Amino acid sequence: MEYARFGAVVALAAVGLLLVAPSNRSQAAAQAVAAGNANSASAAVELAARMGPGWNLGNTLEATPTETSWGNPPASPALFKAVRAAGFRTVRIPVSWTAHADARFDVDSAWMKRVRQVVDEARAADLIVLLNVHWDGGWLQPTKADQAAADAHLRKLWTQIAAAFRDEDDGVLFAGTNEVMVKDQYRAPTGENAAVQNGFNQVFVDTVRASGGRNAERVLVVQGFNTNIDYTLDAFVVPKDSARDRLMVEVHYYDPYDFALNEKSGAWQWGRVATDPKATASWGDEAYADRQFERMKARFVDKGVPVVLGEYGATLRPEHKDSLKSVAWWDAYITHSAVQHGLVPVYWDNGARCGRGLGLLNRATNKPCFPDLVTAIVGAAK
């Protein structure tokens, strides 16, 4: 298979996809931003430069009631070696903690030991690790009525997690939460919602820093409301931090929804490779993605605060014979645009269904489901 950077036109023969180079001007701009950030000697910026592309161990340690309940086999050293061999440099590990804790939120020692084992296996495979508190049952409700209880719950969990990983090197990052939102309300936050969510981020940072050791300087990742770019730009407040230049901001990207995630929609084509307007969403094309990432760059990256695109991906639709063509183009374009704008792309792989959905690797064999798709993502990040 012939593959090159976006700096040239390349052929992905298996999917018949052309990846067209951006202008030299955009490449030069990205290089200038990278150079400027490097000169700041920010620990977070330097670490971000080593992280992309990344991959999610989705639907595994956040699965309930057990690690294998959502259809994936247990994480293993062989899996992480395969992820690294494919060209990924970071693994995001979503974790459910409350499902393995008692009524006082004391995490079961066996579960903590298992999470530590998985983190150690990923580090042994030369992967940077991003460890979080994932959905975890949806108890992090950003309302005044729930704030006190949620703050105490979050503080209790992160006190334990921070203690367990206190001596890990800087290749282990903590992410405080995930997609915090009011249950079933996929809309912009109210002032109250935003204030409480920003408070969650502050509780997380304060709790980890208070644990001392390497956590006093560890790079921490904080989230915007529902990890939505628009809501983050409108309502996110960077937490106060006793450590300097040790924070990153996380957002996710699944736009347009009908193409990326809604398997029941008729929008299974996307962008420049689309041939049927009726099968294409009316918004969310390449220019839209570029604008969204440019806004994050201007607000955060250009000011020395790295941005992690903690989840992104588009679902395959095998009932459409050319589905892979659009998905490969979307995955590659979003990856490339994110990198060009200084964001760290971390693909969401939920495993289980190799051939439908978002799975990149066959977790049973640790082989790529579609090697050309993996090549497109990893190549686009260079």
Question: Would you kindly provide a written description of the structure presented here, covering whatever features stand out?
Answer:
By secondary structure, this protein is an alpha/beta fold. The chain has a single domain, classed as Alpha-Beta Barrel (TIM Barrel), CATH 3.20.20. The protein is built from 11 helices and 12 strands. The strands form 3 sheets. An 8-stranded parallel β-barrel has the order 3-4-5-6-7-8-9-10, surrounded by 5 helices. It is globular, with a radius of gyration of 20 Å.
Any descriptors?
382 residues, disordered N terminus, 37% helix, 12 strands, TIM Barrel, two-stranded antiparallel sheet, 11 helices
* SSE pattern, N- to C-terminal: EEHHEHEHEHEHEHEHHEHEEEH
In the CATH hierarchy, what is the class? Answer: Alpha Beta
What global shape is seen? globular
Write out the strand line-up for the largest beta sheet, numbering strands in chain order.
3-4-5-6-7-8-9-10
In the CATH hierarchy, the architecture is Alpha-Beta Barrel
Instruction: Outline the low-pLDDT stretches.
Output: 1-41
Average of the residue pLDDT scores = 90
Task: Provide the fold topology.
Layout: E1 10-12, E2 17-19, H1 24-39, H2 43-48, E3 54-56, H3 77-85, E4 90-93, H4 109-124, E5 128-132, H5 144-164, E6 172-175, H6 191-210, E7 220-223, H7 229-235, E8 247-253, H8 257-260, H9 286-299, E9 307-312, H10 323-340, E10 343-347, E11 361-362, E12 367-368, H11 371-380
Helix pairs in contact: 5-6, 9-10, 10-11
